[in-house]
Design goal:
The complex is a heterodimer of chains A (about 325) and B (about 160).
Chain A lengths: L12 H7 L4 H13 L8 H15 L17 H21 L4 E6 L5 E4 L5 E4 L3 E6 L7 E12 L11 E4 L4 E4 L3 E6 L8 E7 L1 E5 L4 E5 L2 E5 L8 E2 L2 H4 L7 E7 H12 L2 E3 L2 H4 L2 E6 L5 H11 L3 E4 L3 E5 L4
Parallel strand pairs in A: 5-6, 15-18
Antiparallel strand pairs in A: 1-4, 2-3, 3-5, 4-5, 5-8, 6-7, 7-10, 8-9, 9-12, 10-11, 12-13, 14-16, 17-18
Helix pairs in contact in A: 3-4
Chain B lengths: L1 H12 L2 H17 L10 H23 L16 H7 L3 H10 L3 H11 L5 H8 L3 H26 L5
Helix pairs in contact in B: 1-2, 1-3, 2-3, 3-7, 4-5, 6-8, 7-8
Classes of the chains: A alpha+beta (about 325), B mainly alpha (about 160).
């Protein structure tokens, strides 16, 4: 039960501002409602810990290769203390709430990661990408969550008790019935979108408002609510990353920079005026980061210079 | 910063597990673009805006599909906070939560951001794309709504005061 002291002579100044020009008696009636509605429901320790834990996983430098255990400490000393305290809470309460676990696969910047899933499907993760797989995967669902880019080779539903395979991204879900396809969905990209290209088989792509079906050789992109109509896609380009290639078709330069950062594990500084410019770039064997960057810089009349951990792209003042 | 954002996501999606996911997405995204953030702009405003956009997307997606997403099937977090409903079923604060939940979405959102997360009218109006005057109207209407429910509630109980 809550107790609220209700002193009509003292009104929260914030409420006073809100009630502004209401007649005094009407305003007075609302003071109690304001007081009673004040308690923010506490965020439970479990929710907070599991949420922080995932944020830590996502933002701290991941251990290379391998499926990491789903709990790790952050580097910063102040966070570390918190994380240690948090881990105790986690152990204490996790058991009886039976919060299901998951495995997080991370392909670090500068590397890719090949994963075999429990159902025999395989995934190749591009650098700077994450795939989250619940422990229940393969039993009553075949859902995974992707942030980044991956090439999926999926075993047929018929071999898996009819369970269709589903990839969720930040703004779309892709449902499959045994096929091979590429998904690109870096939520942090300047022009964030989910792109799907199908090598063989049949894929259903759902945005928030509509869905489309893709056949082999077709692709689509989900930028806002709905996937674009299926259109022929150049699979060599869409999956070029698997063999180290770079392929971009009319994207903001910032998207290419982000890809290079992941691919070469470097930092690229560039003003928004350059990052917004649209470019196309295609190279099967791109060479070094410096070579790619200077190619790109030439296109937009910019210069590059090395920094401590990467490059700066800039324009000389005219 | 974490808790207000978490609650805000939860106000919109009514699902703690999903809210935790959304917050992860937001922090991850901010972390990944940290180099390009404009120091002139308020990080708080950016975080709230990102939480709002992702939460509304999540809702739209859910409404359309009604299928389980990756995180559902949990006893914690799926649906309408069953654990608290049981705990709070008879308390006044439990009632108030349900009244707040039954308000129109945008009214509830404006009200909770103001009352519980302490955002200014200006912050709320930027976030929700409403005029400050409209924000104020929403809050006053929310208070009047709660006030009305309280009166009915007390009349039914016929025992004034808690």
């Amino acid at each position: 039960m809550k107790t609220v002291q209700h002193d009509p002579n003292h009104i929260d100044p914030r409420l006073q501002a809100i009630l502004g020009d209401l007649p005094a008696d009407e305003a007075a009636d609302l003071v109690e409602a304001w007081d009673l509605a004040g308690d923010a429901s506490p965020v439970s320790a479990v929710a907070r810990v599991s949420s922080w834990r995932r944020i830590e996983e996502a933002t701290s430098a991941p251990a290379p290769q391998s499926a990491r255990p789903s709990f790790r400490l952050l580097r910063l000393p102040s966070f570390r203390r918190y994380a240690v305290a948090a881990s105790v809470v986690l152990v204490a309460v996790l058991g009886y709430l039976a919060l299901p676990g998951h495995t997080l696969y991370v392909a670090d910047s500068g590397e890719s990661l090949s994963i075999e899933l429990a159902d025999g499907s395989s995934v190749l993760l591009a650098s700077g990408s994450e795939l989250r797989v619940r422990d229940s995967f393969g039993t009553d669902n075949r859902r995974v969550r992707l942030d980044g880019e991956g090439f999926f080779d999926i075993t047929p539903a018929a071999d898996n008790e009819g369970l269709s395979f589903e990839v969720q991204t930040f703004n779309a879900s892709i449902e499959v019935l045994g096929t091979a396809f590429n998904v690109r969905a870096y939520a942090a990209d300047l022009q964030a979108e989910t792109r799907v290209a199908v090598e063989h088989g049949l894929v259903r792509v759902e945005g928030d408002s509509e869905a489309v079906e893709l056949q082999a050789g077709q692709g689509t992109r989900v930028a806002d609510d709905a996937p674009a109509l299926p259109s022929p896609v150049d699979l060599t380009k869409a999956t070029a990353w698997r063999d180290g290639g770079l392929a971009f078709d009319s994207v903001p330069m910032g998207v290419v920079f982000a890809e290079l950062e992941r691919r070469y594990d470097i930092r690229i500084e560039a003003p928004m005026s350059i990052a917004r410019l649209e470019v196309s770039y295609w190279h099967q064997t791109p060479g070094t980061a410096a070579e790619v960057l200077s190619d790109l810089a030439d296109v937009v009349d910019a210069e590059i210079r090395p920094t401590a951990n990467g490059f700066q792209v800039y324009r000389n003042d005219r | 910063m974490h808790d207000p954002l978490f609650r805000y996501a939860d106000y919109i999606v009514h699902d703690r597990e999903a809210a935790a996911d959304l917050i992860q997405d937001v922090f991850t995204k901010v972390w990944q673009v940290r180099d390009t953030l404009d120091p002139e702009r308020s990080l708080k405003a950016l975080l709230f805006q990102m939480v709002r956009n992702l939460s509304l997307n999540h809702e739209r997606h859910k409404k359309r599909h009604r299928t389980e997403d990756l995180e559902s099937g949990l006893q914690v977090g799926s649906g309408e906070h069953p654990i608290e409903d049981i705990l709070d079923a008879d308390t006044l604060s439990g009632q108030i939560e349900r009244w707040i939940d039954s308000m129109p979405e945008r009214r509830r959102e404006a009200f909770l951001l103001s009352r519980r997360e302490g955002l200014s009218h200006e912050e709320i109006s930027n976030l929700m794309g409403l005029a400050p005057k409209t924000v104020n109207n929403h809050i006053v209407l929310a208070l009047q709504f709660i006030r009305g429910k309280l009166e009915t509630h007390r009349a039914e109980r016929a025992i004034p005061g808690e």
